[in-house]
Amino acid sequence: MTQKPLITAQHLSVHYPLRGGLIGPKPYVAAVENVTIEIAAGSFFGLVGESGSGKTTLGRAMLRAAPITKGDVLFDDGEVEYSLKNLGKKELKDYRKRAQLIFQDPYAALSPRMTVRDIIAEPLEVMGLTKSRAETDERVREIAAKCRLNVEHLRRFPHAFSGGQRQRISIARALVSGPKFIVADESVAALDVSIQADVLNLLKAIQQEMGLTFLFISHDLSVVAHVCDHVAVMYLGRLVETAPTRTLFSAPRHPYTKALLSAIPSLDPDDRGKAQKLEGEIPSPLNPPPGCKFQTRCPNAIDRCRVDEPILESAGDEHNVACHRWKELAL
Amino acid sequence: MSRLIDVENLTLQFDTDEGRITAVDDVSFSLEAGEVMGLVGESGSGKSVTAKSLMKLNPGNAVYGPDTKITLHLDDGPVDVMALQNDREMKIVRGGAISLIFQEPMASFAPAISIGDQMVEQLLIHTSFSKPQAKEVSIEMLDRVGISDPSTRFGQYAFELSGGMRQRAMIAMALSTKPKLLIADEPTTALDVTIQAQVIDLMKDLVSEFGMGIIFITHDLGVIAQTADKVAVMYLGRLVEQGTVRDVIRRPAHPYTRGLLAALPTLDDIDAPLTPIPGDIPSPLERPPGCVYNTRCQEVVGPQCSAKVPAFFEVETGHAAACHLYDPAGGFE
Q1: DSSP state, B283?
Q2: Which of A127, B37, B62, B323 could bond to B58 as cystine, CB 3.0-4.6 Å?
Q3: Interface membership of A203 toward B (CB under 8 Å)
Q4: What domains, with CATH codes, occur in chain B?
């Protein structure tokens, strides 16, 4: 993709302070460490990793909803250019309009005491984007129709809706302010497969129709494979591999990506026992191992991996991998 | 193999403020010792309620149908589960012959009692072990499920363990009483894929070692394909398809099973479109007449679909679907 990036993270770190440490340097936990990532305008960018890998924190930092400790996030949609680290109050308010979040749990994300119309209209009212109630209503109806919600149902309360319909309400709410960039954090994880497919198709259709850029955070690689054009894999706060979807799934280079792909249960009953198993669990970010963060579970780790942390290097067209041994392992 | 459990005509309704709702409708299946059965379906299909019925673990407003018959074949002869009245009689089933593993391991351990004390407590209730023996067995079991340093873990609390570790401890606890039947209700859903793969392996090892039967409840057909011997698919309280795992996944017969498989993203063909099943699962208060799936079905045969409940028809040996598509009489008497 030759399009210029809509949003760029540059050497981004997000650290959270820990209690204690009266003497010496303040202890902290590095949720995201030195991540550089470019998301092209109009792309559907997937971010995968296990729980604790920092994918949600990275997504939030890109929305300025998590503190940026080091590095920066740059946003450029052709109208405005922001450095998220140094946003003024007014600019931040404007940025909120341009970047939105869709949550994971459609049951927890919607207030049970507000009607669907009020839920969708709230961002417009808070941001002062419409001048009259009539204008608000029109925007709400327009976006509800786009999200395939029945406009007749806008006066109902969320409890009357199924999981899939609720997720469509959340999507409508995120889209109503006319954003350019959407972070969808595990937005289909709580849905049944039959409904998940419907919501994914809706997200794709809306993205193409409105020219949006998505950061799609998920732990489900098969979902990511179907909807995203680019994928980044995270492990313990670091990016370990980024590539166009097709490349990542046909020729994964990082041992962690390979293990993740292999761990997905296959639909073929004759594949039993063929998966390459990963031992152990993701280490605690409070006490990360030295060197490569994956060395404690990596089947290919050598002495160098235990001291020297690999950095992301090019492994082909738009394909980057952070592993000392990817070249010899690719042979 | 010997027969482990027979479930015949299981019907279960709940009395609620909004009326009597049907959660399970005329479900029959059986399981052999050492066999793993996958029970698949969307949320609201009644799979968890079905499994809990085997131990009569449903709340007080549950009403079982008069034809319901659940027979558990134990070493000392068959047990009629429906005839068991009070908690004392239920003890041979609950935690004795049948153990249950829940989806959320954080919620299934008491937070203020150590893992070890909880394991010992249930062993004291269900077995004749003394306290030191129970402790020994518990630590042995923790070791068996791959928990490192089991004697330290024995004294720890649920919050000190990671998600995967807690699920292992849960499995250790469920298996320490040597149940004949293990019901695993979405045991890997809350886990990451790499940990899920470990837990599935562990469960498969334990089945072959202990020779127990497992009912594996999940919405994930991939997990079923990798673990189960046979599959039962549920929709809105009814069983719609049964067969061996190979037959059901390779040649799904019921339109609902086909819909589930078409909606599933797989890595084999990442360009294939995802086809959702149109509509939502109806509310149990408004169960459609005839075949419960007729409101969303893409292969409706005729008016009989919304008029007559389809019986099970065999599509090949050991593989049956409850659908008018396979009715030689076309659904008419």
Answers
A1: P
A2: B62
A3: no
A4: 3-239 (3.40.50.300)
